[in-house]
Design brief:
mainly alpha, 47% helix
């Protein structure tokens, strides 16, 4: 096991104690089972659980040194995985409310397990979680099309969804890179997973026609950068093209471009995307800007409706707190997991050449 690392701090913005308080706000909302809902019941309305945000919250707990609730979170996830490798899209108070299995939800367990390995060096944990990761990735790749994108869901009746999502596929790209690294670490290499990641990364970067139009959402703007398929000059151009559309000066990043609210989680994910694109000064400033959403107990309001001047939605969500902790760690470089949005197993995340240029139509056609 690796020794404990220092809590992250971003000078002039948040200190180690601030980060710990934010992580504790996540642990305080964890259910007895180990599941981490979006928020604990408020005014009689319970928050739901989904596997992606649950894993992100577990990662933040580990960064803050809250190892016991983090491990309970992973054990719960392992215990409720379905035989096909997926998880239901939503639970509420332990009951499945949306049974379909989303591909990016399933894939993200690989990011969480790789992060936990980086943070702790606990090989026994990795071996225990490996069958879970393998089943999840097999489920995900069962939804990959011939071109390379991955359909967003398999419905309860077994049929696949009819479209792919750019944000989801960007996240899956990072997940596949983590899964490949885990396989290599365990001496069970999966070259087909690597080829699938190559093709997916290429499609994300070069084939916008492969994805449903969700361009009103800021995540579709920055996620190809955050998760790796778009980097370098292409990333900086993408940031410049969307900046005035999605960033509100002095407040943060909008959730959608056509509504007057900024959200803390999107702001912090954009912070990490900016950092990955080499725009560190802008990342630090945006992290400073979004601190108006911090609550006195260390939690963060999910968003702020700046025309009505009220918090919207009116909750302090665990996934928001998790994004803050991970952004602080990314900027501080405090932990062994702080570079997980930049590199996997020492290999930089970045654009991929198509594994099969013919499948996506990129192969050159020789004209006689």
């Amino acid at each position: 096991m690796r020794s404990e690392t220092a809590l992250p701090a971003v000078p002039g913005v948040v200190g180690p104690g601030d980060v710990l308080a934010t992580a504790r706000s996540i642990a305080a909302q964890q259910e007895e089972s180990g599941a981490i809902p979006w928020f604990s019941p408020t005014a009689g309305v319970p928050g739901h659980v989904d596997a992606w945000n649950h894993v992100e919250a577990a990662m933040a707990l580990t960064v803050a040194g809250l190892s016991e609730p983090a491990r309970r979170a992973y054990e719960w996830l392992r215990s409720v995985q379905r035989p096909d490798g997926s998880w239901p899209a939503k639970w509420v108070l332990g009951e499945v409310t949306e049974p379909g299995g989303e591909s990016n939800h399933a894939a993200y367990v690989a990011v969480g397990v790789w992060h936990e390995w980086l943070m702790t060096g606990d090989a026994a944990f990795v071996r225990r979680m490996w069958p879970t990761v393998r089943r999840a990735i097999d489920f995900v790749l069962g939804l990959q099309t011939g071109r390379g994108e991955i359909l967003w869901i398999r419905h309860e009746d077994g049929t696949a969804g009819d479209h792919a999502l750019l944000t989801g596929c960007s996240s899956i790209y990072q997940s596949l890179r983590c899964a490949v690294a885990l396989a290599e670490e365990l001496g069970e290499p999966e070259p087909d997973w690597e080829l699938a990641a190559d093709q997916l990364g290429h499609v994300v970067a070069a084939h916008p026609e492969a994805f449903a139009d969700k361009s009103r959402w800021s995540m579709d703007w920055y996620y190809p950068i955050l998760s790796g398929p778009v980097r370098g000059e292409a990333a900086r151009r993408r940031i410049a093209e969307g900046w005035d559309t999605f960033v509100v000066p002095g407040l943060g990043c909008r959730c959608v471009h056509d509504q007057p609210w900024v959200t803390a989680a999107e702001s912090c994910e954009l912070v990490m995307a900016l950092d990955a694109a080499g725009l560190r000064d802008r990342a630090v400033e945006l992290f400073r800007t979004m601190q108006h959403l911090r609550h006195e107990d260390g939690s963060y309001w999910t968003g702020w409706q700046f025309e009505n001047r009220r918090h919207f939605p009116g909750d302090r969500s665990t996934y928001t707190a998790a994004a803050v902790v991970l952004a602080a760690d990314t900027l501080a470089g405090a932990s062994p997991g702080s570079r997980i949005f930049k590199e996997i197993a020492g290999r930089p995340l970045g654009p991929s050449a198509a594994a099969d240029p013919t499948a996506c139509g990129c192969a050159l056609v020789q004209v006689p």
